């Protein structure tokens, strides 16, 4: 499909209109927080339906929908980390659990901030090869296999409070992989946390909390890029529809995933990712998907 650029910003979503963006908002909301890669689905679903690729700018800005859902669902954790760490600073209690968790999140965020700044010109450019279905298909396969290894390797015993700062840094480094479309931010961090031996639901909880600063920075940066591109008011209203729908579906996704991981393993996601990768690569090789 043709790329749509506005002053170098990929703005393919503008031509889709409200109804299609609402549908893609549901897709984005369901897949952004599951370890299955929202980018893969945001490329594949429009391709199968014959729609314009909504573009990387839309995918990045739509992360703010996930941000709203995470803050809403984990509000008690967000409040605990925020106010608990502020109280610890006032009392100079550097060993406070809330302070340690806040520091862990900051340390784990540093790698993706550095990598994102270095690669930003390539990641979200119009027609970037990073969004090719070749890349996405391979990334789905690789991450599916890594998640399988993590599931087999993990003892599923540790909680967030038992993580060290080096553990947090390790998960932060795995989060850098999410810059490659098809890897999935939640998938990479969940996999990294499982390798450390965390319980599945605790690994997901840390993955979501860790995602707050990264998702906020990426989403707000993309909104600023769209603002600088002077997109029309209609484009903002289309994006707003996507954000509203996406935040609702993201909240439902978190609720379902947390309950699922309390009872079951991640093997369904492993199988799904591998099948998805195979389907994408098969389509590229035999059906001319691009």
From TrEMBL:
It is found in: Cell membrane. Signal peptide: none annotated. Pfam families: BacA (PF02673). The chain crosses the membrane at residues 57-76, 97-120, 132-153, 203-224, 236-258, 270-289. InterPro entries: UppP. GO terms for cellular component: plasma membrane. Keywords: Antibiotic resistance, Cell membrane, Cell shape, Cell wall biogenesis/degradation, Hydrolase, Membrane, Peptidoglycan synthesis, Transmembrane, Transmembrane helix. It is an enzyme of class 3 (hydrolase). It catalyses: di-trans,octa-cis-undecaprenyl diphosphate + H2O = di-trans,octa-cis-undecaprenyl phosphate + phosphate + H(+). Its EC number is 3.6.1.27. It is a multi-pass membrane protein. One of its GO terms (molecular function) is undecaprenyl-diphosphatase activity. GO terms for biological process: cell wall organization; peptidoglycan biosynthetic process; regulation of cell shape; response to antibiotic. It comes from the Bacteria. Belongs to the UppP family. Bacitracin is thought to be involved in the inhibition of peptidoglycan synthesis by sequestering undecaprenyl diphosphate, thereby reducing the pool of lipid carrier available. Catalyzes the dephosphorylation of undecaprenyl diphosphate (UPP). Confers resistance to bacitracin. This is Undecaprenyl-diphosphatase. It comes from Rhizobium lusitanum. The lineage of its organism: Bacteria, Pseudomonadati, Pseudomonadota, Alphaproteobacteria, Hyphomicrobiales. The gene is uppP.
């Amino acid at each position: 499909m043709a790329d749509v650029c506005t002053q170098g910003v990929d703005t393919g979503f503008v031509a889709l209109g409200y109804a299609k963006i609402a549908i893609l908002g549901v897709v984005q909301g369901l897949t952004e927080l599951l370890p299955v890669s929202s980018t893969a689905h945001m490329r594949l679903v429009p391709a199968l339906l014959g729609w314009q690729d909504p573009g990387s700018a839309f995918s990045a800005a739509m992360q703010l929908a996930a941000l709203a859902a995470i803050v809403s669902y984990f509000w008690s954790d967000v409040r605990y980390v925020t106010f608990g760490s502020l109280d610890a600073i006032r009392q100079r209690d550097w060993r406070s659990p809330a302070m340690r968790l806040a520091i862990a999140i900051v340390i784990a965020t540093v790698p993706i901030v550095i990598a994102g700044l270095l690669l930003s010109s390539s990641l979200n450019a119009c027609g970037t090869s990073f969004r090719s279905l070749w890349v996405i298909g391979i990334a789905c396969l690789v991450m599916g296999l890594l998640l399988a290894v993590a599931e087999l390797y993990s003892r599923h015993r540790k909680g967030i409070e038992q993580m060290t700062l080096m553990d947090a840094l390790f998960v932060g480094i795995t989060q850098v992989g999410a810059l490659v479309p098809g890897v999935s931010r939640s998938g990479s961090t969940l996999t990294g946390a499982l390798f450390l031996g965390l319980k599945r639901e605790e690994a997901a909880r840390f993955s979501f909390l860790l995602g707050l600063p990264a998702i906020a920075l990426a989403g707000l940066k993309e909104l600023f890029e769209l603002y600088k591109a002077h997109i029309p008011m209609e484009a903002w209203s289309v994006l707003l529809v996507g954000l509203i729908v996406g935040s609702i579906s993201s909240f439902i996704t978190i609720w379902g995933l947390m309950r699922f991981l309390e009872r079951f393993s991640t093997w369904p996601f492993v199988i799904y990712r591998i099948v998805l990768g195979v389907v994408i690569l098969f389509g590229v090789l035999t059906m001319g998907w691009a």
